[in-house]
Amino acid sequence: MTTIGILGAAGRMGQAIADVAAQAGVAVAGGVDRAGVSAKVAGQPVGTDVAALASQCDVLIDFSSPVVLGAHLEAAKAADRAIVVGTTGLEPEHHALIDAAATHIPILQTGNTSLGVTLLAAVVRDVASRLGDDWDIEIVEMHHRHKVDAPSGTALLLGEAAAKGRAVPLADVADRGRDGITGMRQPGHIGFAALRGGSVAGDHQVIFATDGERIEIGHRAESRVIFAKGAIKAAQWLHGKPAGRYRMEDVLGL
Ligand code: NAD
């Protein structure tokens, strides 16, 4: 049996993971968050000692903030524990930290832990590989009003999938939000639009548009439970794996 430790335990995802773990029969060693929050995980108050939590679990699950990613990876490395990173808003320097830590411990990082989105990304990659630059790709996402980063980690994950299908780096073709006199759309670019409001758990639509026709494929998350279930599945899969960087696709054998 895998014992998990939750980082960002007082947050919406941290609490959802604790709830799903209890229902799924997965052991929870405890949770950590920033000082001053008041929340419980597995009947115990959420603490602040990441090193102590790492030593008590098999796999850490991190849904917190990019600001503390470095410290969380260091704690996982020091305790020789696996870690699932679900936090979004990661910049290239965070990915470099993950790559470096993954030479010592198993790390699974994903902008979306749901089964449906992981499959959607595989479909998007395939469709993009079959359509030429005369098909414009646009990604529209909507999330709840509390979300702090844009485009969403999932929108970027879908953009990466489309860019891989076209064998180009996403950074070279991404239009991350348009405003004002932007000029005409560039052929081959991948556009992003982010909507925020209400309590939407996560809607994503990938639009392939050419003259006279459009293909639209998407995913709607009805609650955070799907992300929590996927994160726990990822943690169980990661437990016992050799050091390295893994993806959600690996969990699903895609
Ligand atoms: P949230 O704001 O409800 O929770 C984040 C928690 O992290 C909070 O309890 C906060 O106190 C804690 N935290 C923030 N900064 C911290 C710091 N410096 N030190 C210690 N703790 C700190 O947010 P959420 O909705 O639970 O989402 C958390 C993260 O997970 C976000 O990046 C979000 O985009 C991402 N997310 C990923 C997926 C996925 O499938 N990968 C799904 C949903 C959300």
Summarize the structure in words.
With 254 residues, this protein is α/β, with parallel strands linked by helices. It folds into 2 domains: 3-109 and 224-252, NAD(P)-binding Rossmann-like Domain (Rossmann fold, 3-Layer(aba) Sandwich); 115-221, Dihydrodipicolinate Reductase, domain 2 (2-Layer Sandwich). The chain has 9 helices and 13 strands. It has helices at 12-24, 50-56, 69-78, 92-101, 115-130, 153-165, 170-173, 225-238, 248-252; strands at residues 3-7, 27-32, 40-41, 44-45, 59-62, 82-85, 106-109, 136-143, 174-176, 190-196, 202-210, 213-221, 244-246. Strands 2-1-5-6-7-13 form a 6-stranded parallel β-sheet, sandwiched between helices. Helix 3 links the parallel strand 5 (59-62) and strand 6 (82-85). Helix 5 packs parallel to helix 6 (153-165). The longest helix is centred in the middle third of the chain and has 16 residues, at 115-130. The two termini are 25 Å apart. The model has no long low-confidence stretch (mean pLDDT 96). Nicotinamide-adenine-dinucleotide binds at residues 8, 10-14, 33-34, 37, 63-65, 67-68, 86-89, 110-113, 153, 227. Nicotinamide-adenine-dinucleotide is lined by residues 8, 10-14, 33-34, 37, 63-65, 67-68, 86-89, 110-113, 153, 227.
